[in-house]
Amino acid sequence: MTQARIEHLVTSGKFSLDGGTWDVDNNVWLVGDDTEVIVIDAAHDADAIAGAVGGRTLRAIVCTHAHNDHIDAAPALAARTGAPVLLHPDDLPLWKLTHPDLVPDGELADGQVLTVAGAELRVLHTPGHAPGAVCLYAPALRTLFSGDTLFAGGPGATGRSYSHFPAIVESIRDRLLILPADTVVRTGHGETTTVGAEAPHLQEWIDRGF
């Protein structure tokens, strides 16, 4: 039986792409127990995230994608803790926009399983919002960490560089909405939702085009 629990931190900063900059609040998720933990999306504030980790061993810093607001604090957190930064290789071009002189420590691959505190998190490659976007599915926790692929109310944005609406629709339809309806969707920004709450609206999203 897994003893893993989910912890949640909100950090604030800037999102910049294609010459624009916006103020954003990001969800930072921690999965672990009293001794070890994984951080999903080291956004904006390495000090705050390190504080949430506390004295525990940080096993990995997982990037759901490489938009700057999800990775800006990752190198500083890695330097402080010794934890590897993991990213899907298809998002390396986006990573380089923020950290041109650094590379992630390891690659995420579709189907890969990360284990922490007895819980398994399965990597699902879900391109669309970004080419290397991934979600993490933790069946024992009845949770999907969706990054910016799926939100309460629809898909992540696809109006900027490196994004593609048909791809995100395919990712959501074929990889996420097939999960059990009671799966809690813990997103990169904003409120949580469930697979069951979002699934009936797929055609609406396709019809509206975003």
Explain what you see.
This protein is an alpha/beta fold. 24% of the residues lie in helices and 35% in strands. The chain has helices at residues 46-53, 68-71, 74-81, 92-98, 165-176, 195-198, 202-208, and strands spanning 5-17, 20-32, 36-40, 57-62, 85-87, 106-107, 113-116, 119-125, 134-138, 143-147, 150-151, 154-155, 184-187, 193-194. Strands 1-2-3-4-5-6 form a 6-stranded mixed β-sheet.
Per-chain topology:
Elements: E1 5-17, E2 20-32, E3 36-40, H1 46-53, E4 57-62, H2 68-71, H3 74-81, E5 85-87, H4 92-98, E6 106-107, E7 113-116, E8 119-125, E9 134-138, E10 143-147, E11 150-151, E12 154-155, H5 165-176, E13 184-187, E14 193-194, H6 195-198, H7 202-208
Parallel strand pairs: 3-4, 4-5, 5-6, 10-13
Antiparallel strand pairs: 1-2, 2-3, 7-8, 8-9, 9-10, 11-12, 13-14
Helix pairs in contact: 1-3
In a nutshell, what does this entry contain?
With 210 residues, the chain is of the alpha/beta class.
Number of domains: 1
Strand order of the largest sheet: 1-2-3-4-5-6
Radius of gyration: 16 Å
Mean pLDDT: 97
What pattern of helices and strands is seen along the backbone?
EEEHEHHEHEEEEEEEHEEHH
Number of helices: 7
The backbone outline, from C-alpha atoms, is: globular
Distance between the termini: 40 Å
CATH fold group: Metallo-beta-lactamase, Chain A
The named CATH superfamily: Ribonuclease Z/Hydroxyacylglutathione hydrolase-like
